[in-house]
Predict the 3D structure of the following.
Amino acid sequence: MTKNSGASPQDNQQQDHEPHDQRDPRHALNSLNKSLDKATRMVTQGLVKGFGNERWQSLTIPLLAIFLSLLTISVVILIFGNNPFDVFRGLLAGAGWWPKENYGGGQSQLTDLVGLATTLTPLLFGALGVVVALRAGLFNIGVAGQMILAAFLATVLVGYSDMTAWLARPLVFLIAIAVGALAGALIGFLKYRFNIHEVVSSIMLNNIFMLTVSYFITSSHQDPVSRNMRAASADARLLTEPVQLGEASARLPVGFLLALIMAFLLWFFLTKTKQGFEMTAVGKSPKAAQYAGIKIGRTVIVAMAISGAMGGLAGVTHYMASVPSIAPGVLPGVGFDAIAVAFLGNAHPLGAILASTLIATLVSGATYMSSIVGVRQEIAALITGMILLFTACGGYLRSWLDVKKRSLADANANTDDNATKGGDDA
Amino acid sequence: MAEQEILLEVKGVTKRFPGIVACDDVSLDIRKGEIYALLGENGAGKSTLASMIFGLYQPDEGQIFMRGKEAQIDSPNEAVALDIGMVHQHFKLISNYTVTQNIILGDEPKKRALGIFPYVDIKNAEKRIEELSKEYGLEVDPSAVISDLGVSVQQRVEILKMLYRDAELLIFDEPTAMLTPQEIESLLQIIKNLRDQGKTVIFITHKLDEVMEVCDRCAILVRGKLVDVSETKNTSPAELAAKMVGRDINFSAKRPTKAIGKTVLEVQDLRVEDSSGFPKVNDVSFEIRAGEIFAIAGVSGSGQTELADAVAGLTKVKKGSIRLNDCDLAKLNVRKRCESGIAYIPEDRQSVGLVLDFSLDQNLALKSYYQAPFCTSSLLNPTAFAERAEKLIEDFDIRCARGCKTTTREMSGGNQQKAIVGREIDQDADLLIFVQPTRGLDIGAIMAIRERILDERDKGKAILLISLELDEVMDLADTIGVMYAGQMLKVAPASTLTTNKVGEYMMGVTEND
């Protein structure tokens, strides 16, 4: 709504501009300026009205960021000569939110949604890991390394054995939690004991874990055909046997529900428990936390252990479900997308659910969109990038709205009738 | 010398900040070639006045004349153009630049190589800086990197920065606050050199001995008002101290102690060092008894806050013992000390005393959130938080827009302070440590908090009060300890000390003993 009311007077004026120009350029310029002013004022007013309420800003600001990025990307798509709505519909259809025109054998909108859930699960786990660390004032960039280490060990220890699914899958989760927690706690320990910044140590550990794992894969666990790690047994993989869904069938991601439950558990932990209170206090003001008698070192290590455990869960749900196995020498992009998702979700566990759904939609809808609209599928990555760019400006948007809100309040007090006139024209 | 021409004249300058008049109708004139001291306690308006001369603030009323002409100094750049320079208390140097780079920054000598390519002429600048440093006796290596230099050398760089810009009037804002005695000695020599070379100096300080040593005249500010201007040679430190403390506050709720009980806190030979091993608290011993207010007076940075932190367990103790109710605290962490009966109102209420982004009820439970009723088997109980908060809001008259759910950051400083005081008093501890409890508060809040302190004393608590406000110390204390440069210079019952006497000890004057 804000977009239309803002753009239309502006466009009209530019069309009017030409004939006026020949008669009296100065007059035309004046009236152009005037209506430009009016237009910007109306856009500002609309934005302030819609997004100025501080209570809801943790929700409305990311929405505004997403809206702005879609607006920007639409321009890019238009330049390519395509209809942006086709692109968006293609993405939604590919991810299962919108019916496709026709489905292949054994596929349906439902199976597409299952595929989305499979992509979403590791992203959500990873984002939760980043969120917990952020709450304690730490920046865990090490999700990728925690993922690869946990998935490798779970595959070697359980995936290559012949345990039944009922034993293997819980064991995979337990190993992921234990390995991830240790890897995360190490970062916390290095920070507490040696004052090594967690960003530095987690980036280093990413490479150490990835290269060590790659060494063991190439030396003893490599699949001769795919050059990746040999895949885990079907019983250990975190996808069920194909389940009949109407006429179609799909393998359901085992970790999906766990990820959703984990998001709620973490929300509860961070807001309703003693330890969560301590973690938040340390994150918001370490000095005050120390003054209150909170043990900073222990809190930091525990926070990083939980964060790492989430990273480990992201690892097994990624490498043992949504992709076949680990590719040596490559850090998983999910581990870094998770950081973005955490910020997009306002560093809130429940926000992470929404944010990871959005990003996973873009990822899993890209191929289909590309095939029916004929736009390269990288446009989906471009949209993701654009959303993150605008999300990163969230603080700026917030303060901009704040300033505009105050100046509008002043202006309204002074020139009340001018403002209402502007409103009537629309 | 008296009939020298006047370089700078300040006429009727007033500067108001919300809730406070920092400078109240101040007029003074500074003669060319003199060292002029601005003397006053913390918050007397010295720095505000200097900042207006240097263009950092604009006066609300009054005028400033430079060389007889009215000057509208809207920014430091204009001050520099008028040949005014200032050395701030906290240096403004870029630590990974060299001395020369720092000095020429903003006024770089540009040259063109081959007549085309512009570059900064470091070489000539270095030569010029070397000449300047020789001329004024400021030993500095122009090519040294700032981060490798000590505090006193950095200060010399700041002075050179002014000289490089041909400053004629040099303002020093508490230049000795961060220096050791030897360094102070050499700085004072430098300042004398500057005067002898024809520069004019404004010297801001609250240390009397420095004024006596180098200054020609000195102006005394008390609460923003100019009280007196005198020739240094015609006055004495005691006289200056009396004027500087200038009591005119009408607080007189002095109540004598009811009964002093057994020893609660006993500190012996306490030594606290900063990270570089410099002693901030140096062999301090004292004891506080139940029903006694032990107030520590001293200028800022004398080691009082470190002392309080050490007792509360926030700083490592190098040497000595702290005993509470005959129980050694050395092995106890912050929380254990708190539980064994120490309440602490820290100096920095915003970054230490509160988590500003927490709601008020969370902050009011910051020290007890882990105990029943706030927390049972690891689960927090929001109702208990709210109930306790409502009670404290009522009892301590904490004003907040949205009740106990107000984000603490949105509250005024006074109400933040009331929240901390309320939380700490509510702990019912045996020892209460108040550091600067009324700083920056309006008179009503000050009264309320002072009343509370006296009430707690009358309940038989031991109170350690640390304040930079001499009035507060004099009005509340039963026993006064004066700290100077980390040492406890004097401990005596309040009734045996006069304000002037305490003022002298605060400045490190002990010769009259």
Summary: The two ends of chain B are 36 Å apart (CA to CA). Chain B has a mean pLDDT of 85. The interface with chain A takes residues 312, 314, 333-336, 338, 344, 346, 348, 351-358, 362, 366-367, 369-370, 375, 378-380 of chain B (CB under 8 Å).
